[in-house]
Design a protein that fits this description.
16-stranded mixed β-sheet, single chain, 17% helix
């Protein structure tokens, strides 16, 4: 009997811990599900407002609290007759080696800026691929480095399109928006269940100047949280990815 007396409390504790853990997993799961369910769908995208031409950014890596400038990112938007053309150009120098990626997306003028064509030209690194994807009837046909087809569900938002969406989200503290599918276009990597949340107002320092912004987070698809800072006028001022890759708007042109 004494053994049962000794083991009893230990077994009870083990069972309790197991139940607590199961409950925690269940809570996290249902909480995640309910946050997604309560979030609003992305608001309709106003294509005319995306006509902001060209914006140049500085790309910085934050390593042990030190900032290492790696190069530049240029975002271009162009309105064609019934299409929106997004161009993202990365010109970086990593450990002295030049690396570049030029990505053009031709999108429909719809709620999601749905891509119909994605073209990538990469140089200097395996992480910067070269390929062409034609998207039609929910399927992408990819030629170039990757010869494959993949499903692109209706309502998919590409990472490049989201950088434009973020400038139009209603700036209301706590507002939460959802979308079902995200496409990391430079990798043709499809992920699920994304949530964008307007955290609130925050003043950030850019080139020594304070800039009043709205801070917005994006989570989902098992990515590390991404943070975006957008000005009151709807200008994308800063992006922070993986807690260490920072992209900052350049107010002056190079050389002035």
């Amino acid at each position: 009997g004494s053994k049962i007396h000794r083991e009893g409390p230990r077994l009870l504790n083990l069972m309790k811990n197991k139940i607590d853990r199961t409950l925690l997993v269940f809570l996290v799961f249902t909480l995640g599900e309910s946050i997604f369910a309560e979030a609003k769908p992305l608001p309709d995208f106003n294509v005319e407002k995306v006509n902001w031409g060209t914006q140049r950014y500085k790309f910085t890596l934050i390593k042990n609290e030190e900032k290492i400038e790696l190069g530049s990112v240029t975002l271009r938007n162009k309105l064609a007759k019934d299409r929106v053309i997004l161009t993202d150009e990365f010109l970086l120098r990593i450990e002295g080696k030049p690396i570049s990626l030029n990505m053009t997306q031709v999108c429909l003028k719809d709620q999601y800026l749905s891509p119909v064509k994605i073209e990538c030209k990469g140089k200097g690194s395996e992480e910067m691929p070269t390929f062409k994807a034609i998207i039609q009837d929910g399927e992408a046909k990819i030629s170039g480095e990757w010869n494959k087809t993949m499903k692109i569900p209706k309502g998919t938002v590409t990472s490049a399109a989201f950088m434009r969406f973020i400038t139009q989200l209603p700036r209301v503290q706590g507002a939460t928006y959802r979308y079902g599918f995200a496409l990391e276009a430079s990798e043709m990597n499809l992920k699920k269940d994304y949530i964008a949340k307007v955290i609130g107002k925050e003043t950030i320092i850019c080139d020594g100047v304070p800039v009043k912004c709205w801070k917005i987070s994006q989570n989902g698809g098992r990515i590390n949280e991404q943070l975006f800072w957008v000005t009151e006028n709807g200008i994308l001022q800063r992006i922070l990815m993986d807690g260490r890759k920072q992209i900052d708007l350049q107010t002056g042109e190079a050389g002035d």
